[in-house]
Write a structure and sequence with these properties.
This protein is 39% helix and 18% strand. It is α/β, with parallel strands linked by helices. The chain has a single domain, classed as NAD(P)-binding Rossmann-like Domain (Rossmann fold, 3-Layer(aba) Sandwich). Helix 1 links the parallel strand 1 and strand 2. Helix 1 packs across helix 7.
C-alpha cells in the first residue's frame, strides 16, 4: 500500500481526500485544526516540524491542501497570508524534492482577473488581491521548482457539509435553516462549482496515470452565483416558499470588500484532451452534495 502525507487536511477538501483515498492508500492527515479523529496536529508554516513529520512517515506522495481562503481575512492579514499560502507551499516543495516524491498543490480559479468569459489551462493568470496573488505565487513556485508535481485548479468549492463548508452553498443553507424566506444573491459573478469528491477522484486518476503538470479541474457547465442559488431552491423544492432578490456585488461591499473577478469560469481543456475529465456537471454534483450532506438539515 502506497503512502500519502496530506498536509492541511482539516478543511472541506481534506474531508473528501481522506474518504476517497483511505481504502487504497496509507494516509497521514495533519492540520493545525484537529477537528476529526483521523487528523493529527501539524502547522505546515513551521518548516522544521513539517519536514520532520513528513520524513518520519516516509510517504510516496505529498499532498499540500491547506490555505487561507477567506479573501477579506487575507486582505487584512497580508503577512500571514503569504506565510500560509505561499511560503508554506515552498516548504512543501523542498520536502517533496528532498524525498524525490510527487507534490500535489491546489490552486484556484481566483488567480484570473475575470476579463475573459472562460479560462483554459494555458491562459495567463492576473491575480487581483492578496489571496489570489499568494496562491498564484505558490503555483509558480511549484511549477518552476518541484521535481514532479500536480497543480490542480479548483473553482467554487462545495463539500463536507455544515461542519466544514464555509463557502457559498453553506452560507445559503444556513440562511434557509435560520428561516429566511428572502435571499439576496449577486447577479454579477460567474464561475464553475467544484464538488470536493469529484475533484479528489480526478486527482486520484491523474496520480495513477502519472500525468504530472497543471490542470484546471472544475465541474462541467458554466454558471453564476445567481443560478447556483436558484438551483439550490429548486432541488430543495422551496420555489413557492423562498424568494431570491438579485443584487449587484455593491450590495455586500461592506462585508465582502476584497476584489473578486467578475468571471472565474474554468475549462478542463487538458483533462478533456487526455480523455481524463471525470468531473460531472455542476447540477448533478450539487444535487448529490445536498442529498448526502444536508439530509434533515432544514427540518
Amino acid at each position: 500500500m502506497k503512502k500519502i502525507y496530506i498536509a492541511g487536511c482539516g478543511g472541506m477538501l481534506g474531508e473528501a481526500f481522506y474518504h476517497q483515498f483511505k481504502a487504497e492508500y496509507e494516509l497521514k492527515c495533519t492540520d493545525k485544526d484537529v477537528n476529526d479523529t483521523w487528523l493529527s496536529y501539524l502547522d505546515f508554516r513551521d518548516f522544521e516540524a513539517y519536514k520532520k513529520d513528513v520524513l518520519d512517515f516516509k510517504p510516496d506522495y505529498l499532498f499540500h491542501l491547506g490555505a487561507y481562503t477567506d479573501l477579506e481575512f487575507c486582505e487584512l492579514n497580508i503577512n500571514d497570508t503569504y506565510l500560509t499560502n505561499t511560503l508554506a507551499v515552498e516548504n512543501a516543495v523542498y520536502i517533496a524534492n528532498m524525498l524525490n516524491i510527487p507534490l500535489l498543490y491546489i490552486s484556484t480559479a481566483g488567480i484570473f482577473d475575470g476579463a475573459k468569459m472562460v479560462y483554459d489551462d494555458w491562459d495567463t493568470p492576473n491575480p487581483l488581491g492578496h489571496y489570489a496573488r499568494a496562491k498564484y505565487a505558490g503555483e509558480v513556485f511549484v511549477e518552476k521548482n518541484a521535481n514532479r508535481h500536480l497543480i490542480c485548479r479548483a473553482g467554487w468549492m462545495m463539500g463536507a457539509g455544515p461542519t466544514k463548508d464555509k463557502k457559498f452553498v453553506q452560507k445559503l443553507m444556513k440562511q434557509l435553516k435560520d428561516g429566511k424566506t428572502e435571499l439576496y444573491v449577486v447577479n454579477d459573478k460567474d464561475g464553475t462549482p467544484t464538488y470536493t469528491h469529484d475533484f479528489a477522484k480526478n486527482v486520484k486518476l491523474l496520480l495513477e496515470k502519472e500525468y504530472w503538470g497543471l490542470y484546471n479541474m472544475v465541474c462541467g457547465g458554466e454558471t453564476s452565483r445567481l443560478e447556483v442559488a436558484k438551483e439550490i431552491i429548486t432541488i430543495l423544492g422551496l420555489q413557492n416558499k423562498v424568494q431570491i432578490h438579485e443584487v449587484s456585488s455593491e450590495y455586500f461591499k461592506k462585508d465582502y470588500f476584497a476584489l473578486r473577478p467578475p468571471c472565474e469560469r474554468l475549462l478542463n481543456k487538458k483533462l478533456h484532451l487526455r480523455g481524463l475529465n471525470i468531473m460531472r456537471d455542476w447540477k448533478i454534483a450539487l444535487t448529490e452534495y445536498l442529498q448526502n450532506y444536508y439530509k434533515g438539515y432544514l427540518d
